[in-house]
# Entry
Amino acid sequence: MNDEQMAIEKMHEAEGRELIKQLTKKIDTTKYNIEISDEIIGSTPSNSQREKLIEKNTQRRHAIGSMKKEIETIEQTLEQRRREVST
# Structure
């Protein structure tokens, strides 16, 4: 592999790691939002407001699952590229 190809691979690696970092931060923020919503749900007298928050938390939990899957896919892609480069 020539220097230009190595530079491109390093760039892809860096981009992948940055994306993983951003997704991890989003997951942490989403988990925090779930916790806050759960607290609000416990003290909300309005059934309609409580239902909206419960639905939003359900959506957030699904989003976390999707983000974790995306991280896994990125990690697998990076690992596969590392193996291809080393051979």
The chain has a mean pLDDT of 93. The longest helix spans residues 3-43. The CA atoms of residues 33 and 57 lie 8 Å apart. The two ends are 10 Å apart (CA to CA).
